[in-house]
Amino acid sequence: MEEINLQYSLADEEEDEKPINHGNNVTRESNIVDDCACVFSTDKVFNSREELIEWTRNAGKRNGYVIIIKKSDVSAHGRNPRIIFACERSGAYKCVSSEGQRPKCPKATGTKKCNCPFRLKGQYLANDNCWVLKVICAEHNHPAAKHLEGHSYAGRLTEKENNLLIDMSKSNARPKDILYTIKQRDIYNATTMRSIYNARHRYKVKELAGRSKMQLLMSKLTEHNYIEWYRSDADTDSVKDLFWAHPFAIDLLRAFPHVLIMDCTCKTNRYAFPLLEVVGLTSTEMTFSVCFAYIEREREDNYSWALDKLKGFMDNNMLPSVIVTDREVALMNAIQNVFPTATHILCRWHISKNVLSNCKKLFETNEVWESFITNWNILVLSATKDHYMQHLRLLESEFVRYQEVIDYVKNTWLDKYKEKFVAAWTDSIMHLGNTTSNRVETSHSALKRQLQSSRGTFETLWTKIHALVELQHTEIKASLERSSTIVQYDFKPSVFKELRGFVSRNALNMIFCESKRADYIGLDPLACGCVVRRTHGIPCAHEIARYKREGRPIPLSSIHLHWKKLDLLPTTKAETTDLSCSTEMEMILKRFNNNDYTGKLQILKKLKELANPASTYLIEPEAKARTRGRPSSKADNSTRRDPSKFEHVLSALNSHSPHLSSSKISVQSKLRQRKKVHQSQLPKHSSFIDSFPQGLRPYIHHVKDVAADGNCGFRVVADLIGLGEDN
Fold first, then answer.
1. Which long-range contacts (CB under 8 A, 24 or more apart) does 180-188 make?
2. How many CB atoms lie within 10 A of CB 89?
3. Is the pLDDT of residue 385 over 60?
4. Residue 99: band (very low, low, confident or very high) from pLDDT cuts 50, 70, 90
5. Element (H, E) at 344
6. What is the pTM of this model?
7. Looking at beta carbons, which pairs linking 204-212 to residues 24 or more positions away fall under 8 Å?
8. Which of 23, 118, 632, 656 is buried most deeply by CB count within 10 Å?
9. CATH classification (class only), 232-347+436-475
10. pLDDT tens string 245-271
11. Where are the alpha helices (DSSP H) in 17-174?
12. Phi, psi angles (nearest 5°) of residue 235
């Protein structure tokens, strides 16, 4: 090792190495002495101040001691820079309050200081541009710690660890995962979970920087170029509706505008605002989120406002041709008003579950119910209108004894909406294979897994949604690139020559399946059915058979534009004109000059908010408490939706089924194996009468057990006034 000439001034030595005076303060551990001279005595030369501090602290950690900087001098008054290290238990407790004065916060407190004499000195050598370490006092008057966890100073995060915590927090990592990652990188790390929570809190406070939650949200939306709209209460400036869309999602929408799927979900935020999510699908059949809208209520006005903002960044020649939803009447009316040219399709899955909820309880045995639902599915999948009429007559004749069931399916679904879900009508619509809202339901599920809590604010929700959408876009880009560069071996035959690299692999797979059908369908269009030609826009079996007979490949022009889009360019080029705001600015100036002082303040307020969204005066809505049922001392943070009516029906049938015959025991045993819906116990009909006094029972002529879905009180009232419990 290089020989270093230690140059200390006499004054420095006298001040730093003077004996430590404990005074009269004697601790219970003063008789314990632990000499660490061999640990810290070193001839090592340190190239920087940071290297010296890191080495000293790590040496202390390895031996069960927490070393702190007692005093630091950065070349003041002509002296060389130096650092005085001490044990964290050095010094004595100093009472802040005066003698006889009662402390402000009377609580259980204590101290770990015991006048430990341990001292080290780090000295900077100017001539050699390095640091050295000298032991002043190597003795501790207390034993070494068995575990450094719980020592606040030892649990502090380093700058690198704090940066790692911030990055992982931005990626929505859980605190326990952050702590585990930090400990994996440093085996001597003594950080506890409380330190992680505190560091995350400090980061959030620093990020907030004195702004409101809505101002922080608006600044983030502006920073990431989101399109955002909102409506607020005129009196309180409280948010009523909030809409945002990712800029890349807008590019995806303009490239793939043909089919949109919409649905609302609840239990995503502390304000109890329903979340309307709109999704589309790419040529590679990947789902992408178009926009998110938090609406105050599920009413036509709120839906119309959100859909109007969606339509605002779509050109007139890029409007959706098909929209899929469930039977939400307010949303259906809003779609009719905002997108009158779009064909509306109802989700078959939701319709099937509604039929189960309202009809299964009316059948005596499970065999009859299974027979009915089979006939119902055949009716829904009728290929032609003639087949539909035949299947409807068959359904009516076979279940003539169940007139209530027939009336329900006809009056509620078939008479009003058969054109929106029966295959005889939907198979003539270019819906690209989307006859259910499963895509948006799957998106809801992924979103709630990401949120993890239903008590988030708009700002925390946006952060998690943004991360989810960014990953979604990465996968979409990868899928488009794979379709344009990778050629599967199944598509090597010459019949696919013009399609390879120009049509998505998903469309090629469907065409490949149709080419197999072509081998036994031949040129007969009646046997072919041509369903995929009408619903997907790709060649059907008899077309491919004709191409094969003529010995020519499938032409690229026979494929719908949707499947040929392997980029993000708009489907059709919109007319671009030079935009100017001079006319609008003149109108604003004229209105400003014509207003009184109060009116001018309002205009300036709006202009400031428009120029700088982060300066918004918006405030968050009030957090809504759950008022249904008994108040719970434990907050409900679950994002899991409340059970649907059909789940309650299945759960009730699993628990007890007075209507089913004994021949259904095997079926019931299978149903019991399914996960039951947690709900209050459903009493049998006899228990209702038994709860009344004996003298009143002869006067009870009818008992009605309404559905136990949390709305039983409303159902009872509706049924008593003659409207029926489902009204």
1. 182/157, 185/161, 186/161, 188/58, 188/61, 188/62, 188/148
2. 22
3. yes
4. low
5. strand 343-346
6. 0.74
7. 211/614, 212/618, 212/619, 212/620
8. 118
9. alpha beta
10. 999 999 999 999 999 999 999 989 889
11. 37-40, 49-62, 159-170
12. -90, -40
